[in-house]
């Protein structure tokens, strides 16, 4: 079982809709959770991160954690074509950071 | 503004060649990392370094070595390049007690 799993997609949503991205993790001791965005041919850039004690909203982005079920989600409200990218989930526990393979999101105008 | 740079964006090498990939960060970060990224496999950690002259194996160190002689520079060495090392290589850095990793632009290496 992979330590961090994501649906590879592609996930396609119309412009203006809510995009919902999910990630599951295996290490129950994980303490911090990250979402990176990676445009094609570019390096990952951090969107936001949350600790194990709560959710976080930043503009159109909301990261949510369900510790009992061991999954993290990223909601993107009012999706824009510029949000089209691969979204990487990363989890940090006692070991170093572990990345998922990413979900490719396409926002159609 | 944080900055991680990598020596080449694209590199083509022949099987058996020794390959050097360089990474430099200007943020005075203690920790530095080398990953490779392949479709469907995500980011896999090759080696990391917690400080100068220190190095630790990651998940896939075979066929690679690293060097960290100065704090700002972390080099990845492919001792004898093979075709299965064709990949995107990403360097990252982080403060010692920090959470956020900053990535360089990546080097797309092709071994023929």
Based on the model shown, name its key terms.
A: 109 residues; mainly beta; five-stranded antiparallel β-sheet; 0% helix; B: mainly beta; 11 strands
Describe the 3D structure:
The complex is a heterodimer of chains A (109) and B (112). With 109 residues, chain A is mainly beta. Helices cover 0% and strands 54% of the residues of chain A. Chain A contains no helices and eleven strands. In chain A, the strands form two sheets. In chain A, strands 2, 4, 5, 9, 10 and 11 form a six-stranded mixed beta sheet that branches. Chain A has a five-stranded antiparallel beta sheet with strand order 1-3-8-7-6, with no helix packed on it. Chain A starts with a strand and ends with a strand. By secondary structure, chain B is mainly beta. Chain B has strands at residues 4-6, 10-13, 19-25, 31-38, 42-49, 56-57, 64-70, 73-78, 87-94, 102-103, 107-111. In chain B, strands 2, 4, 5, 6, 9, 10 and 11 form a seven-stranded mixed beta sheet that branches. In chain B, a hairpin with a 6-residue loop joins β5 (42-49) and β6. The radius of gyration of chain B is 13 Å and the shape is globular. Classes of the chains: A mainly beta (109), B mainly beta (112). Chain A binds chain B through residues 4, 8, 32, 34, 42-46, 49, 88, 92, 96-97, 99-102, and chain B through 33, 35, 40-43, 45, 48, 58, 90, 99-106.
């Amino acid at each position: 079982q992979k330590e961090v799993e994501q649906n590879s997609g592609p996930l396609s949503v119309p412009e203006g809709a809510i995009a919902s991205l999910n990630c599951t993790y295996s290490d129950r001791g994980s303490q911090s959770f990250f979402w990176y965005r990676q445009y094609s041919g570019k390096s990952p850039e951090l969107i936001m991160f949350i600790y194990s004690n709560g959710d976080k909203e930043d503009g159109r982005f909301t990261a949510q954690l369900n510790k009992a079920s061991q999954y993290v989600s990223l909601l993107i409200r009012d999706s824009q074509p510029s949000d089209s990218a691969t979204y990487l989930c990363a989890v940090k526990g006692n070991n170093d950071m572990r990345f998922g393979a990413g979900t490719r999101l396409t926002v159609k105008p | 503004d944080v900055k991680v740079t990598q020596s080449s964006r694209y590199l083509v090498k022949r099987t058996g060649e020794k390959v050097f990939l360089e990474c430099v960060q200007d943020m005075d970060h203690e920790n530095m990392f080398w990953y490779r990224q392949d479709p469907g496999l995500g980011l896999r950690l090759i080696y990391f370094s917690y400080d100068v002259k220190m190095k630790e194996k990651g998940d896939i160190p075979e066929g690679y070595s690293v060097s960290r002689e100065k704090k700002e520079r972390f080099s990845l060495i492919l001792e004898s390049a093979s075709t299965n090392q064709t990949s995107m290589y990403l360097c990252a850095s982080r403060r010692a007690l920090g959470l956020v990793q900053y990535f360089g632009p990546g080097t797309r290496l092709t071994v023929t």
